[in-house]
Amino acid sequence: MENSKIYVIVFDSTHSAIAAEKCLKDKKIPNEIIPTPREITASCGLSIRFNIDSLKIIKEALQNGNISINGIYELKKQGNEKLVDKLI
């Protein structure tokens, strides 16, 4: 089975996730709002999926927009296993 990776930004609140999505879209930075993966937290919430190549510009945009994050994660699927690494 093919290995795959996705990158997500997790927020303290749904409000912060929606504000971040708007901030990034206004700056034409590709992103997708998704339910927070259960491998990261069991609580309900929204996260943003993004391309790792955009990490630096995303961090700058969110910092300039005063939008706080809970963490940035890499999720890897290796066969039937799901692995989570906290990047920030």
Automatic annotation (TrEMBL):
Q: Output the superkingdom of the source species.
A: Bacteria
What sequence ranges are listed for the domain Putative Se/S carrier protein-like? 7-74
The record's listing under Pfam families reads: Se_S_carrier
Q: What is the name attached to this protein's record?
A: Putative Se/S carrier protein-like domain-containing protein
Organism field: Alkaliphilus peptidifermentans DSM 18978
